[in-house]
Amino acid sequence: MNGSRKLLIFGGLALVIWGMGYGIWYAVFIEHQTLDGIGSALAAGFMRAAENRMAESQAALADAASRSFVYVRQVDAHGHWTGLGLLLLILGIAFDRVGFGESARKSLAIALLAGSIAFPLGVLLETWNRGIGPQAVAVAGSALVILGLAGTAWGFARSG
Amino acid sequence: MSVRGEAIGSDALATRDAERFAPFSARRIFVIGGIALILCGMILGDVFAAFILHSNANRIGANLLAATRAVMAHNPETAGAAFQNIGSLLENRGTKVDAHSHMIGFGYIALLAALLQPYVAFLEPTKRLLAKLFLVGATLLPVGVFMIHYVGLAGSPFAAIGWASIVGDSGGFLVWLVSIGELAGLWKYFHVSRKRAVPDELLTERSWPARVLLSGGTILILLGFLHGSYYAGVHLFDDEAKDGALLSGMTTNAASGDSAGALQALADYGALQGAKAVNVAVHTHVIEFGVLAILTAFFQPYVFLAEKWRRIWAVTLLIGSLGLPVFVLAELRWGLFAGGYADIAGLLVIIALFAMLVGIWRYTGKLDSAEGAA
Q: What residue of A is the nearest CA neighbor of B178?
């Protein structure tokens, strides 16, 4: 087995295990409480509005939006790490059919692995810092995955 | 090579295939269990989309309307009750979607594990045990998650987690442990055993259906990534901001007695939720179908059907895989009319996959009868 396949298979499997472990940890310790919190905040927003306590209502709705922002990204990070890990594994198994030399294949494998780690990491970092930095990490990660995938598709097509 | 030589080679190949795909072997358990999980997950998803999804969304909308009217009537109890109903409806929808997606995801992992079995350096009984444990975990998680809405917190020792969640999470933990076991087996193969690589027919398949599925699957995944990146980059943050603004508009307009403004905000909120759900569904389905196409490409040597039918099912799977996300996206313009076509496209994928499972079943029958004859 050549280096590019090893990188994708071991990197992919490690990412799948990491993504699943993260998902189990999140489901057991955080998810249920977060969903309860979003529901309670939304209900409080409408109930306070019905009582004409508008400042409290707006604060509750802002709290719900903030919790929802974090929840969406936590679930996205879990789903994308696991999904991308699975994709790396699958591509790794078929990677000898990519019709390029080993050095080009290794570059594609590095781009795919680096992007698959960075993209969900950037999404997750957005929950701690809503500045441009985490978004840039996520965009760079997804660009690496797209480039790697486009190169792989081209390589599959070349090999016939 | 002489005819006799070819016959000997063919016999040797058949014997090796029979060993790798022997009855109750780890690879056979993973392949058949994996495809069965994917089929069950897809059927659950199609039934959910056709019969539950839209009526559930309508009920959520009706309760949100009730909450907005309760704000207009300055009745906080009714608003709170409406949100309790919404919470229950969202849990119902969320757990069904989770059960559907996890069942399919575990099916993919099972097929991958099947491909990797020759490189997992454990004895066959250990590999078989891992395969069975995987299927137990992969069944427990979706079943547990599906039951969350019905079991609730009844008899649970925890404040926020019920028994169904505990069962589901245990299933996930079992799958996770098996994945670590498979990784350890791979590590042993590459670092300890140093076995001589034996060619695996699944990894050398170059037939027409396999090539079409491999290329088509990669293109589908690329399309899914491009769509997801476009949505995340251009719409996601704006949609999240609109989400908060519309909720705020509903409450402030309703509290000040501007019922037209409140109802308009409610209608816009419903449309926004629909657009978000459609875009997420397009992104995830096109990528998942791409992964499925690539995985089924590997297993074409086990699909014991005539070449013509293998080609037909490969093309059917790709047509359905592209059709479902395209028609889901078209729902934004044409509503349930396009939704119906999306369900039919999903059904095409299920039929193609079921046909391939039948082919694999026939292959196992051929191997078993040959073994019995020997």
A: A17
